[in-house]
Every structure is written in structure tokens, then in C-alpha cells.
Amino acid sequence: MSDTPKTLNTAGEQHRLAPYQFKKGQSGNPGGRPISIVNLINKELKRKVKIIGTEKTIKAGQAVAKQLVRMAYTGDVAAIKEVIDRVDGKAAQRIELDANIQSTETKINIDIQAKLELDPEAKAEFEKFTDRLAGIEL
Fold first, then answer.
1. What is the pLDDT of residues 33-45, one digit of tens each?
2. Nearest residue to 112 via CA among 104, 43, 22, 11
3. Hey, where are the domains in the chain?
């Protein structure tokens, strides 16, 4: 085995790869990047549509928004929720604490109390610390 690195620039390899290379002036992607669904939707929402019964035109996105608000006015709960989410933003999700956390905290407190019974100086420091913690709002 030789220590020289193998390159693709040897005459034999260039000749072998020539049919697969693009010709001068030829694109490798003549159709361009395909349009994504997001771009298609945005393009449609920007398109002008005629308001029925008038000569006025508005953007399709505005027509969709108006229809959503009309549906909310009629009492459609899903439409009401969507309008509120779009205007005010989605509500923050509440996180419930698990009961196991409380039991773990209790075990830790019992361990600390047992250790503090052995050292009165540490007990005094711990009581100062817990008094300061009690004043902090979470």
C-alpha cells in the first residue's frame, strides 16, 4: 500500500467521470428549488380576491381573517379560541408538581434535622438560612 493520497485528478478518472459532469453553461437544477408549502400558502394569501357583490378587492389573507372573525361572532368556539390565540398569543401552560417531590423534600428535611441535632452551631446557621428563605416569594 502506498502512502500517497489518491486524488480524482488523474487522467483516467477524469475520463471516467466526464459523462456525469455538467456541460459548460448547463445548470444542475434547471427547474430551481421546488416551492415549499409555506411559500405556496403565503403566495395565495397575498393574492387579490374580489368581494362578492362589489367591485372592491382585498388580499385573500384579509378575507380569511374577516371570515374567522365572523365565525367567532356566531359563537363558533374553535374560531373564538383561534382569534384570541392570534391576538393575545397562546396561554402559558401550567405545570403541576408531582407528590413525589414533596415526599423527597420531606426525606431531605428529616435528614437535615437529624444532622442538626448533633451540631447546635450548624442548627443556628440553618435556622437563619430558613428564615431568609421564608421571606423570598417564589
1. 888 999 999 999 9
2. 104
3. 50-88, 100-134
Q: Are 48 and 57 in contact (CB under 8 A)?
A: yes
Task: Report how far apart, in Å, the C-alpha atoms of 111 and of each of 18, 38, 63, 95, 114 are.
Answer: 77, 57, 65, 28, 5
- Give the contacts of 17 (CB within 8 A, at least 6 positions apart): 8
Residue 65 zone, left/alpha/beta (φ > 0; ψ -120 to 50; rest): alpha
Q: For residue 82, give every residue at least 6 positions away whose Cβ sits within 8 Å of its Cβ, in sequence order, or none.
A: 68, 72
Q: Residue 40 is placed in which grid cell?
A: 405556496
- Judged against a pLDDT cut of 60, whether residue 7 lies above it is answered with no
